[in-house]
Input
Amino acid sequence: MTTLKEDLWKTLEDLTDEQFKQFKWCLKENDIPKGFLAIPVAQLERADRQDTVDLMVQKYSCPGALEITIRILEKISRNDLVQHLSSANTRMNGLKTTDSVLLKNQYESEKAVLVETEAEIKLMIQERQMKILEVKHSAELSKKSAHKQIADSVRVFTILQQSVESSLANLIDIIEEKQKKTEKQAEGFIQGLEQEISDLTKRSTEMERLSRVKDHLDFLQNFSSLNAIPPTKSWTKVSIPPPSYKGNVRTAVDQLQEKFSKETKKFLAKSELIRVQQFAVDVTLDPDTANPYLILSDDGKQVYCGNNVVNRKTPDKPERFNPATNVLGKQGFSSGRFYYEVQVKGKTAWDLGVVKASVARKGSINASPEHGYWTICLRNGDKYKASAVYLSVKCQPKKVGVFVNYEKGSVSFYDVDTGERIHCFTDCSFNEKLYPFLSPSVHHGGKNSTPLIISPVNYTV
Output
């Protein structure tokens, strides 16, 4: 099938040289058909028939080149060629119709792609906007953490500085006290020596006077009393050795090192706690998992056990613990790191930690990692255990922090007030969602009625 350009070229080939000259003349400025722009004379002068077709197509596109050709052919009385091009025009219109259908189909197809791409781009924008918020939140937490770290550092170093100054002052007092004692002892010795010197000088004077007496009787009468040396102390072994301060300095340094060590441990513990507190999440208790005797607050942040008489008559769902007095958080976590805090002040028994989603909810429960429980507990007011192993806890915590690193496979428990780590499960195998786990334990006739309270994590300096 010939193209329109070929039809135009063949049409111009049918023109005589004179007619072709007239044809090109009509494309110039003065003779161009109305509605068309002229082709520059310089381009037309040396243009042959094929070049002329190219110039018209470049200037007017294919449909425009066809129209201006027909109008010029009519003007130079070559209607026979007009008829031929008219049929070509009809053929072209048919192609236009076909192309229009194809164009429409292509338009709709590519528009659908465009809409899909636009939706994808909008989603990408939303994801990046969310990432910006996430980064800003992380930066803000980092800033708060830095402020708290600086404040804690200033506090610790102030304590250490004060300890150094206090130790130095005490050491100086001890040294000065020893020196005063030595000086007092030396003064006593000097006084004794000076007294003996005075007594000996006096006796020497009296003996010298007696030696000048000429009267025999007078000499003999006084000689017996002056002949003996006055009583004196032997000073040969008397000395004032300089006091030793080595023991005092060593004791002061040892005490200072012990103070430094304690404060450093406190500081490092607090620093670690601040680091994990950045991963705090909002935990709300799930009433559908709560034992029927457990009482939850309306906001899902507190739980305590009833008096074991009043049962809430809740439906016994598969996810509900019974008879164990347990409850889970609504929020589950299957990746990353998360942290939450629970106030345990006033309790004599409790359990805290995380459990995997598939733990047994009915009957007797073995709270061990092998059964999906990573928890610690308090019993009898002062006995702390982790999976039946007793823990050494220096002081009873009022608030406990629970930190999980899912990828690392660890669960750590902290005394929030001191920053001390109470216990840490390591090398844990996590392969499903983990849920915060709380048990306020049974009522014990009012002795353990205080609720466990999920507390907001405090980042303030």
Residues 4 and 91 are 9 Å apart (CA to CA). The chain has a mean pLDDT of 87. The first strand starts at residue 294 and ends at 296. The helical segments are 4-13, 17-25, 41-45, 49-75, 79-211, 216-226, 246-277.
